[in-house]
Automatic annotation (TrEMBL):
This is NAD(P)-dependent dehydrogenase (Short-subunit alcohol dehydrogenase family). The keyword rRNA-binding does not apply. PANTHER family: NADPH-DEPENDENT ALDEHYDE REDUCTASE-LIKE PROTEIN, CHLOROPLASTIC-RELATED (PTHR48107), RE15974P (PTHR48107:SF7). It comes from Paracidovorax wautersii. Belongs to the short-chain dehydrogenases/reductases (SDR) family. Gene3D superfamilies: NAD(P)-binding Rossmann-like Domain. The keyword Oxidoreductase applies.
Length: 251
C-alpha cells in the first residue's frame, strides 16, 4: 500500500478506548496500526470498520511487555504504512481488587511489565523514528494514564494506580527530553469509563456502582476519551506538551 503521511500506532487497539481512538483517528485521516496481544478477531473487526469507511488500517499482533514484539511491531509499521508520526500508549491491564498486603510478585510483575515497561519500549521506538535528532520529522506520543494515578485506588488496586503514576512521570520527563526534537508528549487520565476492562478486573458493575460518586453523575465513554487523545495527536494542539488531561467527570 502507499505510505501515508499521518501514521498512528494504537497499542491495545482492539477494544475499549484503543478501538475508539483507532476509529476516530482513521476518520480524521490517519493511517492506523491496530496493535493487539491476543484479540485478533476484535482487532480485525476494527480494521474492517476503518477500511469499509475508506480509511487505511492494519492489525499487528504483539505483546508490549515483550521488547522483541515491540521492535517487530514498529518495523512492521515501517514496512506497511511508513514512519510513525503518532503513538498512543493505550495497552494496559488491571487485576482483581486486592490490598497491598495481599498482592503477589507475579501480579506486580504482570502489571508493571505491561503498563510501564510496555509504554517505555513503545516510546523508545517512537522517539527513534520521530525525533529530528534521528532524522525524523517530529510527532506526538499520547500516554493513557488514569485518574487512579492521583486517587491511589485504595482497597481496590494500589498497584495499578502506581503503574499509572509511573506513566505520568514518563510523560513529564519524556516531554521535556524531546520537546526540542519535534515531539510532543502528553497523557490522558480517564476516570471511570464504561469499557470491559472492569470485568477483566473482576468488577463488571463498577461503572454503575461508582456513578453516584462521580460529580457528573455518570461514567464516561471510550469515545469521549478518544476525542481528547486524537486532539493531542494532531495539529490542533501544536503547543501542548507535558499535559496530563483529566477526563473524569470531576471525580
Amino acid at each position: 500500500m502507499d505510505k501515508a503521511a499521518k501514521v498512528a500506532i494504537v497499542t491495545g487497539g482492539s477494544r475499549g478506548i484503543g478501538a475508539a481512538t483507532a476509529l476516530l483517528a482513521a476518520r480524521q485521516g490517519w493511517a492506523v496500526a491496530v496493535n493487539y496481544a491476543q484479540q485478533a478477531g476484535a482487532a480485525e473487526a476494527v480494521v474492517r470498520q476503518i477500511r469499509e469507511a475508506g480509511g487505511t488500517a492494519i492489525a499487528v499482533q504483539g505483546d508490549v511487555a515483550v521488547e522483541a514484539d515491540v521492535v517487530a511491531l514498529f518495523e512492521s509499521v515501517d514496512r506497511q504504512l511508513g514512519r510513525v508520526t503518532a503513538l498512543v500508549n493505550n495497552a494496559g491491564v488491571v487485576a482483581p481488587p486486592a490490598r497491598v498486603d495481599e498482592v503477589t510478585a507475579e501480579r506486580l510483575r504482570r502489571l508493571f511489565d505491561i503498563n510501564v515497561l510496555g509504554s517505555f519500549f513503545c516510546a523508545r521506538e517512537a522517539v527513534k523514528r520521530m525525533s529530528t535528532k534521528h532524522g525524523g520529522a517530529g510527532g506526538s506520543i499520547v500516554n493513557v494514564s488514569s485518574a487512579a494515578a492521583r486517587l491511589g485506588s485504595a482497597h481496590q488496586y494500589v498497584d495499578y494506580a502506581a503503574t499509572k503514576g509511573a506513566i505520568d512521570t514518563l510523560t513529564i520527563g519524556l516531554a521535556r527530553e524531546v520537546a526540542a526534537e519535534g515531539i510532543r508528549v502528553n497523557a490522558v487520565r480517564p476516570g471511570v469509563i464504561d469499557t470491559d476492562i472492569h470485568a477483566s478486573g473482576g468488577l463488571p458493575d463498577r461503572v454503575r456502582d461508582l456513578a453516584p460518586k462521580i460529580p457528573m453523575g455518570r461514567g464516561g465513554t471510550a469515545e469521549e476519551v478518544a476525542e481528547a487523545i486524537v486532539w493531542l495527536m494532531g495539529d490542533a494542539s501544536p503547543f501542548t506538551t507535558m499535559a496530563l488531561v483529566d477526563i473524569s467527570g470531576a471525580l
